[in-house]
Amino acid sequence: MAETLTVNLGERSYPITFGADPADGVSPLLQSLGQAGRRFAVITDQNVATLQAAVLQRLFGGAPTYAVPAGEGSKSVAELGRVLEFLAEQGLGRSGAVFAVGGGVIGDLAGFAAASYLRGVDYYQVPTTLLAMVDSSVGGKTGINLAAGKNLAGAFHQPRAVCIATDFLPLLPPREFAAGMAEVIKTALLGHPLLFADLERSALRPGDPRLAGVVRACCGLKAGLVEADEREVAEQGGRALLNLGHTFGHAVEQVTGYGAYLHGEAVAIGLAAAVRLSRRLGLVGDAEVRRVESVVANHVLPIRLRTPLAVPELMAAMARDKKVRAGALRFIVLESLGAAAVRGAVPAADVEAVWREVGAA
Ligand SMILES: NC(=O)c1ccc[n+]([C@@H]2O[C@H](COP(=O)([O-])OP(=O)(O)OC[C@H]3O[C@@H](n4cnc5c(N)ncnc54)[C@H](O)[C@@H]3O)[C@@H](O)[C@H]2O)c1
Predict the structure, then answer these.
(1) Cα separation of 222 and 354, whole Å?
(2) Quick one: pLDDT at residue 352?
(3) Which DSSP string corresponds to 83-115?
(4) Which residue in 255, 267, 258, 321 sits closest to 73, CA to CA?
(5) With 70 as the cut, is the pLDDT of residue 323 above it?
(6) Residue 31 has pLDDT above 80, yes or no
(7) Which residue's alpha carbon is at the smallest distance from atom 6 of ligand 1?
(8) How confident is the model at residue 326 (pLDDT cuts 50, 70, 90)?
(9) How many CA atoms lie within 13 A of 342 on its CB side?
(10) What angle do CA 197, 211, 7 make, to 5 degrees?
């Protein structure tokens, strides 16, 4: 029997189920869709379709399935178009539903397709990467990238349920596991000091018995922030805190063309940058910078750019980031290791200096 956590959003509330076997969460959903005579389609990527073929067959049988090429490149206008055409070809009606089975790329892409197809149909998140389990599958942010920047087109569209199953993880490549740990470390830093201390005591590796508890803790913290500030409008203390490290990270992803760094790797460098910016602003000291960087590095993640990127290009990418309000640079900073805050009007010179500290030229 899967354990459940509810994301409380009034009529948009939904359960997150936690278990080992994905059937525990997914089968009851399919049963109730079937009883109501509702059809559904599965959106996944080609890696998941191949590696998890037996699981997909067991869960969804011969349901219409569309597999996009794996990777960040599929969060594109072109791929969104293909997913929408697929849903239409299947004749999915307003009562139809979409299952997003994959990592954050699939959740964001299929979620956006579900938000826009017939002006919105139900969808369900079945995350298969650590990153998607601890972060992207919860909260209803969906979207794709544009040439001008990351996640620049999208919608808030909450899933009807999230089914987390750790049985998906053993086939996840180590580099992808590490990328997921970047979001875990982020979550610990912004609001879970005990989790940070635990990760500091010993790094979490694939197969670690602590993993299921860590996934639940991250979902719990994210659910609380989403409940308090579903559309990220709070000036302080809301959902924006989840962007810790992301303004820097998104700039790295954009300048390198979405491929050289996994999202989680860019976020890892972003966390190093965020703690360094916090030190420049006088919020934390050298010890905190060392501690954050060693936890990130101990989880096999980068804390410096692998090759120098140009500071002006990174600054220009940041200026296009949708978190920039009215032209002012706004950052999530650390007040301590386990507490974050939004800081506006950060001097550009400080940000440029931080870029150089993490290896930009
Ligand atoms: N919506 C949100 O709130 C939110 C939050 C954080 C990140 N994101 C987005 O999430 C994306 C990154 O997600 P990701 O890291 O999961 O990337 P991803 O979806 O590209 O998955 C990573 C890789 O792992 C493979 N894979 C997936 N499941 C697997 C499994 N069980 N076994 C083996 N291989 C598997 C995929 O095919 C892919 O190659 C980014 O686009 C980021 O912007 C969104």
Answers:
(1) 27
(2) 97
(3) HHHHHHHTT--TT-EEEEEESHHHHHHHHHHHH
(4) 258
(5) no
(6) yes
(7) 136
(8) low
(9) 19
(10) 95
256 to each of 30, 73, 259, 261, how far by Cα in Å? 40, 12, 7, 8
The 8-class DSSP code of residue 136 comes to: I
Supply the pLDDT for residue 259.
87
Q: What phi and psi values does residue 116 have, to the nearest 5 degrees?
A: -105, -25
Closest by CA position to 223, among listed 57, 3, 5, 4: 5
Nearest-5° Cα angle at 198, 193 to 201: 125
Q: Which residues line ligand 1 (CB under 6 A)?
A: 45, 47-48, 51-52, 70-72, 75, 102-106, 108, 128-129, 131-132, 135-136, 139, 141, 151, 168, 171-172, 176, 179, 263-264
Residues carrying an active site annotation? 119, 141, 183, 222, 232, 239, 243, 246, 250, 263
The rounded distance, in Å, linking the Cα atoms of 274 and 258 is: 21
**Closest C-alpha among 246, 238, 306 to residue 271:** 246
